[in-house]
Please model this.
Amino acid sequence: MEEIALALACCLALAFVSKRWSLPAIPFYILAGVVLGQSGLALVPADEFTAYLSYLGLIFLLFYVGLEIRPRSLLRQGKPLLISGFIDLNVNFLFAFLGALALGFSLPDSLVIGAALYVSSSAIAVASLVENRKLLLPESETIVWLMVIEDIILILILSLFTAGGENPLAMLATIAVVILVLIAAVRAGKPYLRSLLSRDDELPVLFTFTAVVSTLYISRLLKIPEALVAILLGSSLASTGAPRLERLSQPFRDVFLVLFFVFFGITVDFSGTTSLVPIIAMTVVAIGSKVLTGLLVGRILHGSYAAGMEVGSTIIARGEFSIAFAAIYGSGAVSALLAAVVILTSLTGSFTARFSDRLKRFFPP
Amino acid sequence: MGVRCVELPGIGTKYELETEKGDRVAIIFLPSRHFQLYVQQKGAAAPSAAEISPSEARRLGSLLSGAIIEAEKEAVEIAFSALADLRIRVHTYLIRANLAGKSIADLQVRTRTGATIVAVSRKGQNTVSPAPAFTFEDGDIAVVIGETEQLQEFERKVLES
Model:
């Protein structure tokens, strides 16, 4: 138990540092894990219990992401969102996938790397827009909606990866049934859920925690990934009062997610095949592809490459979702590569977002 | 010009206004319950922004809507943000010997001035909504409500009669 306390204390100290310098906290948590874990000082071992705790972090993150998905307001965004989402998926997935293949990763590994590096960090992008006072810019709307559409595509990718097993059709059918059952259950129980969630005793918190934790059981029963069930649960429950559920689940998400990052860092094994060359190469590809995405989106939706630079510089940072892919699907070498790329791109991204004005000067109107 | 309302998932709601003179003002409600206030002058390359706490936002809001703009010693002026141009003053007056023994009906306060006496305080005892037959004594304090002009009439026609 004292290992968890040690890991959390380190993260608390690092969180202070990151807030003080307005840097994203995610790379620090992973680095803390790397230093404390098997690739570093080997002070904190990972066991089944810590694996369970950190998995809760992932599940709460995805539940929270699900809460933010509201199909109706998404549809209202229309064509611009489709364009930016389409460019973002294709450019980034292809670059990372081909890059990984070129570096000698196997086809399944390259698919995981492609998917993991396609998704930007919503947390870092949103925080940097607020922190750097960019919310008046029309580009900021494009960016936050792009982060939402990435979450939707994340569901599709998770479904496809799951269906890639021995029985794809049966798997997709199971997922479809889960979606329908969840929607029907929430619709039927909406008045009861609403009154349950508006109570002022401990029941709403207990309900939220139980619902999220039970996704682990349901998914094991149906043999579909926990991540998918959590995100679907979130988006189906969103109609009963998303802001309230967000407030209820946020403390769990915050604490368990820190454990998730730090124990991911602890279990990452850098001693194996990884050398600096693939890490640097993939980082350059990852940064380049997001900048290209930004430039294209800016040119098409906002009519200038300067606007595109604003978009690109904000979405460079990879974070929670890339680590999620690495944790669920990544082999040892893939996890180590993704950990390193996340650390490097998130730090780079926080600086490019802060100094986007200077980067935009390369693209005079 | 109308206010444009934009939902920013994960951040909050943005309300954007382009003024008649072409300046842009935006307010964003953050999840932390703080606000970001953006102002961009017409033709300026970049906006200025301020982050405002909830209590600062309330103060700023009441300044802009003119809720309580005047709090002199014995009068307050109230404006309602939902009702444009409605400004009401509440004023307290000391009743002197010249009005002692006269009732509100005798003085014809409402018909002559338009103002209304809503309460009278006599030696620490309060009478709220006094009846027309209510008779004043020297040293009463009357709480009178009305528009500025009506209160001026009250001072001139009633108090100084």
Q: What stands out?
A: Chain A has one domain: 2-360. Residues 2-360 of chain A form a domain with the Na+/H+ antiporter like fold fold (CATH 1.20.1530.20). The two ends of chain A are 58 Å apart (CA to CA).
